[in-house]
Design a protein that fits this description.
about 300 residues, mainly alpha, Na+/H+ antiporter like fold, 14 helices, about 80% helix, about 0% strand, globular, transmembrane, membrane, Mem_transp_PIN-like
Length: about 300
């Protein structure tokens, strides 16, 4: 796909919805928390549930995708630690850099991107990457942010409180019992499933609107340019060859490999700002990296999708 064609077909719809959320925040000073909670507790779990029930994903393919995301997160964490050593950063700065580089925005940016770039098949495959990244963020990410003070117990409690986990378990149970019980028309279960599916369809635009609102409320720290540049460079550029190497290593298929490279080099996850704020882990540095990496990703990801080819 040509560069301009990729930008028009993939990025323009995303930018339009993100821009609408950005403008809405600037004009109304809306509180994003209610919308975020609706997305977290209702729409995103519904999206995950409906996609996993209907998706044609083999067990081995799903395990490879999970393995890819786990390995990538670990390698990026190690690389960040090694790059930070020569600078002699203190503990909080190193922790902030780990949060910025290890955890990607595979949800409210990555899922729509996969849908626009690779269609329904790509979107279904991207859900596995998103779920894995979400679990890692809620456990490993929380542990890193707490710098060992919060401990694994709090991480497990956070994980058990995440509705996405129960959406995954419910979908797997239905797949085991036979998805035809809910996907075939003419019965009450199918009517209920169509309601869940409709809720899930509302998640994509709302996720992008929330991203725009959150970006509008963030501020860039002018005195941490080196750290922001380091985190952004690792996140958007160094992650590309690393993601490809790991995808080949775990044996991902052609579509999954392209998705892995793209989702592996997504900008910093917005939700790590919450961790940084809660534990006072350089929140200005983290929020600034979210803004800069997201803005630059519209260019870097356009070029990457053009190089790899969309669906």
């Amino acid at each position: 796909m040509e560069l301009l064609g990729v930008f028009n077909q993939v990025m323009v719809p995303i930018l339009f919805i993100v821009g609408a959320g950005f403008a809405f925040k600037k004009l109304t000073d809306v509180d994003v928390r209610p919308a975020s909670r609706i997305s977290l507790y209702l729409l995103s779990p519904a999206l995950i549930f409906s996609v996993l029930v209907e998706a044609e994903i083999g067990g081995a393919d799903a395990l490879r995708s999970v393995g890819f995301m786990v390995l990538l997160t670990g390698v990026l964490g190690l690389l960040t630690f090694l790059f930070a050593l020569p600078f002699g950063y203190e503990r909080r700065t190193r922790t902030a850099l780990l949060l910025c580089v290890m955890f990607s925005n595979t949800g409210n940016y990555g899922l729509p991107l996969a849908l626009f770039a690779f269609g329904r098949e790509g979107f279904e495959a991207a859900v596995i990457f998103f779920i894995t990244q979400g679990v890692l963020a809620q456990t490993l990410g929380l542990y890193i942010a707490g710098s060992g003070q919060a401990g694994w117990r709090n991480g497990v409690l956070r994980l058990l409180g995440a509705p996405q986990i129960y959406a995954v378990l419910g979908a797997l149970l239905i797949r085991y019992a036979g998805p035809e019980h809910v996907t075939e028309s003419g019965n009450l279960l199918n009517d209920l499933f169509r309601g869940v599916d409709l809720m899930g369809q509302a998640a994509i635009p709302l996720l992008l609107v929330i991203l725009g609102i959150e970006l509008a409320g963030a501020r860039i720290s002018s005195d941490e340019g080196v750290q922001i540049g380091l985190a952004t460079g690792l996140k958007l550029f160094a992650a590309v060859p690393i993601s490809y190497a790991i995808a080949v290593l775990v044996g991902l298929g052609p579509l999954e490999t392209r998705l892995a490279v793209i989702l592996g080099s997504m900008p910093t996850a917005v939700n790590v700002v919450i961790f940084a704020t809660e534990f006072d882990i350089k929140p200005k540095l983290v929020s600034s990296t979210v803004i800069v990496s997201t803005a630059l990703s519209f260019v870097s990801l356009t070029a990457l999708i053009s190089l790899l080819g969309g669906g």
